[in-house]
Amino acid sequence: SVLPTPAAGSPPPPAPQEPLEPPQLSGVPGASGLESLSEYEEGPCGWGSFQPRALQRCNTPGGFLFHYCLLALTQGIVVNGLVNISISTIEKRYELQSSLTGLISSSYDIAFCLLSLFVSFIGERGHKPRWLAFASFMLGLGALVFSLPKFFSGKYQFGSLYEDTCLTAKNKGSCSTSSSPLFYYLYVFILGQLFLGTGGTPLYTLGTAFIDDSVPIHKSSLYIGIGYAMSILGPAVGYVLGGQLLTLYIDVDLKHSIDITEDDPRWLGAWWIGFLISWLLAWSLIIPFSCFPKHLPGTAKIQEGKVSQTHQSGSLQATDGNFGQSFKDFPAALKNLMRNTVFMCLVLSTCSEALITTGFATFLPKFIENQFGLSSSSAATLAGTVLIPGAALGQILGGVLVSKFKMTCKNIMKFALLTSVISLVLTFVFAYANCENEPFAGVSESYNGTGELGNLTAPCNAHCNCLRSYYYPVCGGNGVQYFSPCYAGCTQSVSKIHPKVYYNCSCIEGEIHITPTPSSVSLEAQAGKCSSQCKNLPPFLGVFFAAIVFTFMAGTPITVSILRCVNQRQRSLALGIQCTLLRLLGTIPGPIIFGSTIDSTCILWDINECGNKGACWIYNNVRMAYMLVAISVICKIITVFFNGLAVFLYKPPPSVTDVAFQNQNAVLTAVSLECDLNKAGNDG
């Protein structure tokens, strides 16, 4: 006879005579019991038989996290800090067009996308800390290669100074189409970026999975959040370090023998020093990572106590204990993950977030500069002050809250959905931030009633032979901004005063033609943009900071959700797929879409002597603000939709208690059935 199933809430029945198999936790690799534990090759910290006792203090999750943070910081410094801040200097030094330097920037993502899936699949069964030692080597090598053009291109030769005032017999530019011999250093920069992309691949796939292996389930989000926050602080350190190094002359040994200063447009800074520092820092981490064991002590015990939260769906293919051992399993593993609807929803939500975050990281300084009339350096400083601390704070807060409240996978996804909705609402701050353009001669304002709008040349400056490719704005005493002192018709200047002042300007009304003295200057125009009358900057920065915090607060929870909703053996590959799609659908098209959108609001382009269109000088501020609102809101709605769909579709596995009861009932049923069969046989 079959024993009845225990009622809900009743104590479990006494154990049968036969020992029970422990319930298999599908989130843990291996079958069960000893087979599962034997998979985790724990060991001491060291190299072979050399295992110093002092090193064992680092053989902990905290010790690994410390070195992981240093590597993430180094990667952020080089890839998102030094490269970005050095691009304009590299353009000038090696005579490269912006489209080509854009290729340099995207080379990192190209290498990452090509390698991410393979590295994450192969490395899942491998020695993850040694993969990170390889990552340290490649990041260092990439930084070293990136700096090499400095040592093979010779000394920098700066030309004669461009005169910015109105003189009739100069400023005629030459139109040259021949390429510079320095052009071929482009390929060295691309090679360096490819090495950097190769080194970055294991960091956010295998490194994150190793951290998740080594700590209890409720601490995983905290550790991952700290690691990701350090990768966000990296660019801030890179910008500060790079900015300081650009105040040194590019050929540091010639600093005292040159007669130009930082204010001179011919000045180029020592962009290459930061890459050498990063090279040494990255290679100093090779030895620490190589000494970590395949699994930290206590990993098997931690894994034994974890409960699977893998999404349950009939479309997912069951995998056995040997799945993933061979590269032949790669297509099946890829297909299995792509059919996990919850995983794909989470990945697509991160792609839409990555599109707008990388877009703003690239163009927020330009937005602030144009909307609020600030200098490029001031706008970049303000943008960094808002973006970097906000992103880091959001990553840490998200990890801390998930860890503190010990959220389940479904609750983590609900938390990410909530923060996404809040950041969507805050995104409308861009509609509030728009400011009308200030009066600009030849663009929105005529030259004292002469000339045509859209044409910088007017009767008052037609004799000056001004170059439209030389943008050096000045603010007239009449409150109108001019493209350059030349277009303002200014013939003389005083450079000892800061900011530089100009006088005898034929295009500015009410000028008094006197020769100024240091104590009395006829200030008809001064260098720089006219101060903006828009007072929306402080509230804009405050609300945008909150939007950044809530945007990144979902970052760590979504990563943890991805680790939880997929099979334990496929976590690294899942992160590899996420990183690949993140770049293909997010970080690569993001700056392109934002750049094209912002360019569509341009009202004055740079046109050089050859007639080629270059950068945009003046934008329609109101239109720019509304276009950015449109992009941001569309992407945020996509994020909210996929996060909500993931919550709706997620089906957790039965609880461990349910599994235990089912196993006990199955065993008891089998024992009873065997007894009945034996009895029937004996009776027969």
Automatic annotation (TrEMBL):
Domain of life: Eukaryota
GO aspect biological process, one term: sodium-independent organic anion transport
Chain segments annotated as transmembrane: 65-87, 99-119, 131-152, 184-210, 222-250, 270-292, 342-368, 380-403, 415-433, 540-563, 625-650
Keyword Disulfide bond in record: yes
Keyword line: Cell membrane, Disulfide bond, Ion transport, Membrane, Transmembrane, Transmembrane helix, Transport
Gene3D superfamilies: MFS general substrate transporter like domains
Region (Disordered): 1-28
Molecular function in Gene Ontology: sodium-independent organic anion transmembrane transporter activity
An example Gene Ontology CC term for this record: basolateral plasma membrane
Residues in Major facilitator superfamily (MFS) profile domain copies: 64-647
Annotated ranges, domain Kazal-like: 454-509
Cellular compartment(s): Cell membrane
Membrane protein topology class: Multi-pass membrane protein
Matching InterPro entries: Kazal_dom (IPR002350), Kazal_dom_sf (IPR036058), MFS_dom (IPR020846), MFS_trans_sf (IPR036259), OATP (IPR004156)
Biased composition (Pro residues): 9-22
UniProt family annotation: Belongs to the organo anion transporter (TC 2.A.60) family.
Name of the protein this chain belongs to: Solute carrier organic anion transporter family member
Species the sequence originates in: Bison bison bison
GN (gene name): SLCO4C1
